[in-house]
UniProtKB/TrEMBL annotation:
Residues 1-33 form the signal peptide. NCBIfam families: Por_Secre_tail. InterPro entries: Ig-like_fold (IPR013783), Motility_Chemotaxis_Reg (IPR052918), PKD/Chitinase_dom (IPR022409), PKD_dom (IPR000601), PKD_dom_sf (IPR035986), SBBP_repeat (IPR010620), Secre_tail (IPR026444). This is T9SS type A sorting domain-containing protein. Residues 524-570 form the PKD domain. The keyword Signal applies. Keywords: Signal.
Length: 661
């Protein structure tokens, strides 16, 4: 009998096909007073393994929210809407649903079959398309796998166990829930054993252009219609890249291997640098190796180059250490991790002090080199509490979990001892870890309720998802669960600003002619109530058009965040502050506006050639210009990130990162 909550391997062979892993997405920032606005819930009458809960949340530019929830079969519903289940009755399906900013239902899908399928998270691109990757198990003759009513996979042949056993899938929905494509990379003749016991679609990350990076565990074989042949012995991690049209691009092999049992893990990709990060917790029954080095402690964080080479790794010091449950990448390439920690443990160079014998929830900021710059952790009583979800929100980092009695930097929340947990939601200043707010969603006593996933819309409203046992009080609404297990929920925390107009930030900059590390920044965006600059070197400013001197040469991402009554928006630009005689060769060359919607202007004092590259490195435009101004029409380009290379006749080059809205 397979235990599908852990990975077990013999000689690096994967033999378990699902596990509990929670994922969380990025939030936006709001400096104004917020409250719980509305909530929805759903589920079944079944008590499924690992509970019915909201696993993942994303939003689009119009303020629509999309969420993924694991569910059972009997009486499956979303609010008062009956949904069609596909599970045999004791395993799980998944619901994907969408609501608008005001809490109005938009659409829903149910994915699953007769066995215990696995989907970890959902992702969205800049156009609001939704991407889903995971694993379905085609072991039931009476309950075929459904991707709702869009696609029904053929049932297996009881006389041939190796027929119709492809089970890894990646699919795309458009913003209104219409399936665009479904990809299953395994060959048609994949065997029952290879599919069920050695393969897993584990995690996905999607960038603004719709390129999806899909972390899978694969045995040797041929994949993606022959485009990728895996000759590596055993079952190993691979990152399969697909473009927005569902075309296979490449397979990346991260330098990480495991044998035995791997308790949990999560992958995040830095879409600015292309680096990958894998974090999690090892168990006593397995061995994890990265870059040829064995992970010897419970908690780990490993950085990989875009090609999969290990850059660095961090481990905790304790043999009984806590958990790393989630992480997110900031616009300055910092890494924020969260989970739980014990007294005396050390991680990324920081030693934790916790007088309580139980574990404490913690939050930590780590720079791109793997060195922690700050940490903060709570004190708990009579409970073991860990952070399940973390997200960034412009100048904030936010977390969610459940709590009984908790104190964090002087903020306190408590319910009666041994009477269950309530949902916790807390926000911190991402620069220094100072707490901004800690609030809750109350439930009734005796039940254990948890926040487990986070997101925010373009109007800076937060969305918290998770699980609850009986009653959940979201503002003026009461969500009710009448079953024996948990139900999933989604709650909006923010303001009634769905039709509001956010500020649109922007800025230009000039380098000082004498001090090459000194810059003057000029704000050029729309009106605002408050403004904050982040210069990428741990310094900030509240002036509208500040001057700043960097301490040393380097590449810096400078960001400005502006806020009005609707919320906040952030705009960033890369600055190359370099001492030397060549640092002024492009001082009189300006590229604007950035981000660009229609026409891009290049202004220069000399003759230059330019080449425009997509984020994939393909040349999408080129030309030459004399001193003066030249324009490039961007209206026909897709939204996303582009690289503009400028080259002078003398050979000097400059790269400008452009954002097309």
């Amino acid at each position: 009998m397979l235990n599908r909550n852990l990975f077990f391997m013999k000689k690096n062979y994967f033999t378990l096909n699902t596990f509990l892993l929670i994922t969380f997405l990025t939030l936006s920032y709001s400096a104004h007073s917020q409250s719980w606005q509305w909530g929805v819930s759903g589920g079944s009458f079944n008590q499924i393994q690992n509970n019915e809960k909201t696993e993942s949340i994303v939003t689009d530019a119009d303020g629509n929210v999309f969420f993924l929830a694991s569910v059972g079969r009997n009486g499956l519903h979303l609010e008062d809407m009956e949904l069609t289940p596909y599970d045999a009755g004791s395993n799980r399906d998944y619901v994907i649903a969408s609501y608008n900013c005001s809490g109005d239902f938009r659409w829903s899908k149910v994915i699953g079959g007769g066995d215990k399928d696995f989907i970890k998270n959902i992702q969205a691109d800049s156009q609001g398309n939704i991407y889903v990757g995971g694993t379905v198990y085609r072991t039931s003759q009476n309950y075929p796998v459904h991707f709702d009513t869009d696609t029904i996979l053929p049932q297996g042949n009881p006389n041939n166990l190796d027929e119709h056993k492809r089970n890894l899938f990646l699919l795309k929905y458009n913003n209104t829930g219409e399936m665009q494509w479904l990809k299953m990379p395994q060959p048609e003749d994949v065997t029952f054993i290879d599919a069920i016991s050695h393969s897993l679609g584990a995690d996905i990350q999607t960038d603004a252009l719709g390129n999806t990076y899909w972390l899978c565990i694969l045995p040797p074989g041929t994949y993606a219609d022959g485009s990728f042949i895996n000759t590596t012995e055993g079952d190993n991690f691979f990152v399969l890249k697909y473009d927005t049209n569902g075309n296979f691009v490449e397979a990346i092999i991260p330098d990480i291997q495991f044998t035995g049992a791997l308790e949990s893990y999560k992958m995040v990709r830095n879409h600015n640098t292309g680096n990958f990060y894998i974090t999690g917790r090892t168990g006593s029954q397995g061995t994890l190796t990265a870059g040829g080095e064995t992970i010897t402690h419970n908690m780990y964080l490993i950085a990989f180059s875009p090609e999969g080479e290990m850059l660095w790794k961090n481990e905790n010091s304790s043999e009984i250490g806590g958990y790393l449950n989630d992480m997110v990448i900031g616009d300055q390439n910092n890494i924020y991790v969260a989970g739980s920690i014990y007294d005396g443990d050390t991680f990324s160079g920081i030693t934790f002090t916790n007088p309580a014998p139980s574990s404490s929830p913690f939050l930590m900021k780590i720079n791109s080199e793997g060195v922690a710059t700050w940490e903060t952790h709570a004190q708990t009583e009579n409970s073991n509490t860990m952070i399940y979800g973390i997200t960034l929100n412009n100048n904030e980092v936010a977390v969610t979990t459940g709590y009984g009695v908790i104190s964090w930097q002087g903020e306190e929340l408590a319910i009666e001892t041994n009477q269950g947990y309530d949902v916790l939601f807390a926000r911190f200043n991402k620069s220094n870890g100072t707490i901004i707010e800690m609030t809750n969603i109350p439930g009734n006593l005796g039940f254990y309720d948890y926040g487990q996933s986070l997101a925010a819309d373009s109007f800076n409203n937060y969305y918290v998802g998770g699980r609850f046992g009986n009653l959940l009080y979201v503002g003026d609404e009461t969500l009710t669960n009448g079953s024996s297990g948990t139900d999933f929920f989604l709650a909006k925390y923010g303001t009634d600003n769905c039709n509001c107009t956010l500020p649109q930030p922007g800025f230009g900059f000039e380098q000082d002619s004498e001090n090459q590390l000194a810059y003057t920044f000029t704000y050029s965006g729309s009106g605002y109530d408050t403004i904050e600059w982040d210069f990428g070197d741990e310094t900030t400013s509240g002036e509208e058009s500040p001057s700043h001197t960097f301490n040393e040469s380097g590449n810096y991402t400078v960001c400005v965040t502006v806020t009005n009554e609707c919320g906040s928006q952030t705009y960033c630009n890369d600055i190359e502050a370099v001492l030397g005689t060549n640092s002024f060769v492009f001082a009189e060359t300006k590229v604007y506006p950035n981000p660009v919607n229609g026409v891009l202007t290049i202004s220069t004092d000399t003759n230059i050639e330019y080449t425009l590259y997509s984020v994939l490195g393909s040349v999408v435009g080129s030309g030459a210009m004399n001193a003066g101004e030249t324009t490039i029409d961007f209206s026909g380009y897709e939204s996303g990130i582009y690289m503009l290379e400028l080259k002078k006749e003398s050979g000097e080059r400059k790269i400008v990162r452009l954002i097309k809205n």
